[in-house]
Amino acid sequence: MRDDLKAKLQRRWETALDDRKELAPSSSLPILSDLLAARTKKQGSVVSLRSA
Questions:
Q1: Which letter does DSSP use for residue 51 in this model?
Q2: What is the structure's pLDDT at 48?
Q3: For a disulfide at 32, which of 9, 13, 27, 28, Cβ 3.0-4.6 Å?
């Protein structure tokens, strides 16, 4: 059950980053800007706060 929840939350996180990237590819917040840039470079791969 926990693994299922983690997988669903990860998909929501990735979708949220993709949606945010479509609005604007960068941010004035350094961590968000880094996450968006990493998402662009690693399209389709897992990007999480821990990897930033």
A1: G
A2: 56
A3: 27
**Region of residue 44 (phi > 0: left; psi between -120 and 50: alpha; otherwise: beta):** left
Which tokens go with 22? 């479509």
Could you say which DSSP state residue 43 is in? T
Contact 38, 52 (CB under 8 A): yes
pLDDT tens across 12-50, in order?
Answer: 999 999 999 999 999 999 999 999 999 877 665 555 555
Residues 6+ apart with CB under 8 A from 21: 36, 39, 40
